[in-house]
Amino acid sequence: MARGPEKWLSLIGFILFCLKTVVSAKRAPEIPTIDQAYSKISNSITVEWATVPGATSYLLTAEDGDTVIETMVANSPGTVTGLKAATLYQITIRSISAAGRSQASPPKQAKTVLAAPILEASSPNPDSILVQWEAVYLAIGFSVSIMQANGLGRIWKENTTNTSLTFSNLDAGTLYTIKAYAWNANGIPGDDSTCNQRTSPHAPANIQVSFDSGALKASVSWTPTEGAFNYTVMALSDSSELSCSTSVSSCSIPSLQCGTQYLISVLASNDAGFSKSSSTVNLKTVACAPGRVTIQEDPPGHLSVAWSSVDLGDYYVAFVKSDDGLEVHCNTSLTQCNFLSECGFTYFISVFAYNKAGQSPLGDVFNYTTAPCCPSDINPVLVSSDRVEIVWSPVRGAELYETKAVAGHNVVECNDTATACTLSALECDTKYNVTVYSFSEVRGSNMSCTSHLITTGPCSPEIRNISKDAFSTINVRWRATNDDATYTVTAQGEKGVYRCSSKGEGCTMGGLPCGSVFSVTAVAETEVGRSLPSYSMPLETVPCCPDGLTITQVTQSVINVSWSFETVGQTYVIVLESHIGQSKCHTHQSHCLLGCITCGVNYTVALKAISASGLTSDCAYQSYFSSACCPLGVKLYRLGPNGIRIYWQVSRGSANYSTDLYGSKGIFTCAPRAGLSFCDITEIRCGDVYTVMVSPVGETGLKLTFCPKKIYSVTCSGSTLGMMIYRGKSDAE
Questions:
Q1: What is the sign of the dihedral through the CA atoms of 586, 591, 594 and 597?
Q2: Helix (H, G, I), strand (E, B) or coil at 506
Q3: Is 496 within 8 Å of 503 (Cβ atoms)?
Q4: Residue among 219, 207, 356, 222 nearest 284 (CA)
Q5: Is residue 666 part of a domain?
Q6: pLDDT digits (tens, 9 = 90+) for 131-184
Q7: CA atoms of 632 and 447, how far apart (whole Å)
Q8: Does the record bear Signal in its keywords (predicted)?
Q9: 157 and 180 share a domain?
């Protein structure tokens, strides 16, 4: 029992030890102590402190009464950034571990240094740099230093209370580094700022100018200047200003004006600006081409060329080149030259002025064309009675040819650049004086050319009328206007060509086929040639009659008349006429159905062919006898046990008949003798139904099939002689 309490006491002690360990492990870290806080940059303060055991990071806090800025750092020293320049801040620090963060340390005050001045530098002269800046808050002075950017040479340092400073006696075209900072009333320096500035270059020296008279271009060169990035060459005259830029020591200025004096200067430049202008060089360009050039040919064969004087021109040269390649020139200090010329040539004339700089630019090139010569080997070719084609060889200097044909007061002209001309609208059967003049726009026509006499072809006749006589002979008459001409009339159609000729005013043609259309023209012919055809006149012959008619009896009162034809567009009128009446049909086809035909009557047949233009031909044919009439009152009588008599009544006229009896046992046919109206059929069987048709037979022996059929029933009972057989329905019923 005594050991029981001891065990419990040991267990409680162990538990208390464990709890103490756990509580001590979760306790926040200690509060750090700031050793010092200071500012070297205007937007930050650096803090130093002793390390706190167990702390994994620290929280720095800076307060200025308006804002609070916190920064997390890993260890000492730590820096708070994003602060305002020249401002007093309360600085605290907290240590942080996994158990939490400590309380803030006792505050420590620190003030940020002055802001750096914002520098602006420029180089007003090649040996100086001007540095400017705006005032800095709480600054009472500034320190500015300058040295070459490459680190060579001395360092200039100046203190000032102003906001600008000029450094002199510097090297031209050299890059300098400038550094400046401000200090406060306690002499504490603030942030510094740095900038680079290059001094402007010296003006280029040893300017050399050369002139290209052909291209009107000046090439300028010079000695390079230290620190120059680019050069600008200026060419100034009283009326213009030209320039070119380059990074090397030479440059060309194009497009200079002729007859002009220029002052050439060169400027060097870099990122600091331009140098002063170099000393100028005087340049005189070539003279301009002479203007107001006039050319005269007086007298013919002599050319006089004159022009106006130009500035800077010492003397002149005039060139005259003909279109065959020959060139001559004259050299003079005056303003006129004279040359020999030939007719039919084009001369190209140019004038140049010269001075020490060279030849003037090419001015206007003038051309002068002398009067062209007359065409030779003219060959007039007769084309027709109202046209003449003239052909000739080209002549020198001619730009255009003018052809004239004159007959009394009648004048016809033709202008063309080609060496051929067709004179149209001439009078037929007329003598013309034809002349070809050569022409140039500058000199006009050469009016000394000779003429040629030609006669046009005969006039076309005018057909007055075309008539036909009773024998189908064609008479053609025309109006004759030519002397001693032979006239030929031609009728041309699909079925052939027919002609007649005469020296008078008419001729006759025969044998033209029917149903044809012809185009009739007339031409006149003389020793000179043939005229154009006259205007054509149409000629239509009467339509042709069909070779024959075919008449087919369709029904007892309807016939079909057919024929053959070759001409499309004709119409036909068919007339069948007898003492009883008339049947008529008008059609454009090759057949026609005519109704109301009376059977057993003789008809006269007439056909009229009508062309599309209304011409008609009356065609007569042989008469037509219509088919015999179908018999009436067809009846059947028994003739013993196997015989039947078929009886009918003749309606009109006399005709032969044929009888057909159709039954299931066969077909039975009989033909009575002429003049009889009955027919007997034997060897038939009773007890059958028969179809009976009695048909007239035509003259050709063809049996007509359009007569009605009747149905009869032949029984096997009753009397066997003379009994009328029962009649059933006919096929018409």
A1: positive
A2: strand
A3: no
A4: 356
A5: yes
A6: 999 999 999 999 999 999 998 888 999 999 999 999 999 989 999 999 999 999
A7: 110
A8: yes
A9: yes
What does pTM read for this prediction?
0.44
Burial 298-309 (b: 16+ CB within 10 A, else e): eeeeebebbbee
DSSP run (H or E) holding 12: helix 3-25
Which has more pLDDT, 491 or 616? 491
543 contacts 570 by C-beta, under 8 angstroms? yes
Question: 């006499």: which residue's tokens?
Answer: 453
Residue 733 lies in a domain: no
- Whole-number Å distance between alpha carbons of 711 and 728: 5
Q: Are residues 77 and 49 in the same domain?
A: yes
Measured CA to CA, the distance from residue 638 to residue 645 in angstroms comes to 6
With respect to residue 407, please indicate whether it lies within any of the assigned structural domains: yes
Condensed to tens digits (0 to 9), the pLDDT of residues 661-705 reads: 888 878 888 888 877 888 988 888 777 888 888 888 877 777 777
Taking the C-alpha atoms of residue 104 and residue 32, their distance in angstroms, rounded to an integer, is 8
382 Cβ neighbours under 8 A, 6+ residues apart: 388, 389, 454, 456, 457, 528, 529
Query: Of 540, 559, 575, which residue is a domain's last?
Result: 540
The pLDDT value given to residue 180? 95
Question: Rounded CA gap, 104 and 31, in Å?
Answer: 7
Could you give the CA distance from residue 567 to residue 131 in angstroms, rounded to a whole number? 119
Using alpha carbons only, give the angle 192, 89, 99 rounded to the nearest 5 degrees.
115
As for how many domains the chain has, the answer is 8
| Chain CA centroid to CA 584, Å | 67
**Domain assignment of residue 132, given as a range:** 122-199
DSSP single-letter state for residue 503: S
Structure token pair of residue 540: 């239509």
d(CA 731, CA 711) in angstroms, rounded, equals 7
CATH number of the CATH domain containing 78: 2.60.40.10
User: Whole-angstrom Cα distance, residue 139 to residue 157?
Assistant: 18
